[in-house]
Amino acid sequence: MERVARVSEIISASPTSFDDAIKVGFERANSTLRGITGMRILEQRVSIEDGEIKEYRVRMKIIFVLDP
Description:
By secondary structure, the chain is of the alpha+beta class. It has one domain (5-65): 2-Layer Sandwich (Dodecin subunit-like). The chain is built from one helix and three strands. Strands 1-3-2 form a three-stranded antiparallel β-sheet, covered by helices on one side.
């Protein structure tokens, strides 16, 4: 059986950690997209205010198989 996949890029954020930002992004994508087969983390950044980390951000690609 032939399969065709699509890749969508998203950015998600969390005030807690990079791991949490990844989970937030995955959970949101999983609520909208069917057939997710993988993710690739492209970039990690932090937002700083008053000398403290305020937000952890990740840019990632979500890979999912299109319906036949």
